[in-house]
């Protein structure tokens, strides 16, 4: 679902260097790390993907165990909006 959403340009993965492939998610055991731009549009896309996942597989995501992080250069306003949106998902 994440790969398809990135291919549809619903959200953008992160590039480590110019010319490298983008990384949109990392899976390890039962943990998932999702990487995207810090915009409202991409945040909403991620929430939509997670809700679709819950519906499609009948599994519930424990949002109490989820978190959101930003790189240090992210503007405070974007951090605030992202944090509020994330809290609303819970």
Beginning-to-end CA distance, first to last residue: 21 Å
What is the arithmetic mean of pLDDT? 82
Gyration radius, in Å: 13 Å
Note poorly predicted spans. none
Shape: globular
Describe this structure in words.
The structure is a single chain. The protein is of the alpha+beta class. The protein has one domain. Helix content is 42%, strand content 13%. The protein is built from 3 helices and 4 strands. A two-stranded antiparallel ribbon has the order 1-2. A two-stranded antiparallel sheet has the order 3-4. Helix 2 runs parallel beside helix 3 (76-89). It is globular and about 35 Å long. The mean pLDDT is 82. This is Reverse transcriptase.
What's the topology here?
Blueprint lengths: L1 H6 L6 E2 L6 E2 L1 E4 L2 E4 L5 H18 L18 H14 L1
Antiparallel strand pairs: 1-2, 3-4
Keywords, please?
alpha+beta, 90 residues, 42% helix, two-stranded antiparallel ribbon, Reverse transcriptase
